[in-house]
Amino acid sequence: METPAAPHSPAADTATPVTTVTVTVGSPDAMRELGLALAKHLRPGDLVMLTGELGAGKTTLTRGLGAGLGVRGAVTSPTFVIARVHPPLADGPALVHVDAYRLGGGLDEMEDLDLDVDLPESVVVVEWGDGKVEELSDDRLHVLIDRATGDTTDEVRVVTLRGIGGRWAEADLASLAD
Q1: What is the distance between the alpha carbons of residues 140 and 149, in angstroms, rounded to a whole number?
Q2: Of 1, 71, 131, 156, which is most buried by a Cβ count within 10 Å?
Q3: What residues does 71 pair with on adjacent strands?
Q4: Euclidean distance between CA atoms 148 and 93, whole angstroms
């Protein structure tokens, strides 16, 4: 009897290119600006996963992405609706903004959202997607936002962009650190 193959894990696949860039932002406006700059690197079919504590700036970054992609509608947290689709105002891709925080299951539960259908024509941004949406694409961008925790008013965030796969190996993410 054959042993079933292990699930795909980019960490275990040494042939999968990984590109990592770290950016420090000092304010919500700077986080939005980072989103605007990052949007220039996005194209239809891109999967972006956002990870960070509550209040870290995931939705603020996504607002910048939406502005940079030129999509319709105010980008707000999709916490209670799970997913929002922002169609393009011109020729660009739609922005599909998902909040997977309340979804307990993995890809099975996410399949109800039809993200695999939206992905080829859209930029799909998933907050709290770790362990839930990686199987949607071998090429994806993980964005980890670290902030000071506890009783602090510090607005500085350290944003780590980790591009996985050939798609991100050819993107110039280092230009975002300038």
Answers
A1: 27
A2: 71
A3: 88
A4: 34
Summarised one tens digit per residue, pLDDT across range 12-25 is 445 688 999 999 99
Q: Which residue has 């000092």 as its token pair?
A: 26
Please work out, in degrees rounded to the nearest 5, the angle formed at the alpha carbon of residue 33 by the alpha carbons of 32 and 39: 90
Name the token pair of 28. Answer: 């919500």
**Mean pLDDT on 68-79:** 86
* Cα atoms in the 13 Å half-sphere on the side-chain side of 59: 15
How many CA atoms lie less than 13 Å away from 2 in the CB half-sphere? 3
If we measure between CA atoms, which residue out of 140, 114, 117 comes closest to residue 129?
A: 140
Element (H, E) at 140: strand 140-147
pLDDT per residue as tens digits for the range 110-153: 555 555 556 688 999 999 888 878 888 899 999 999 987 766 67
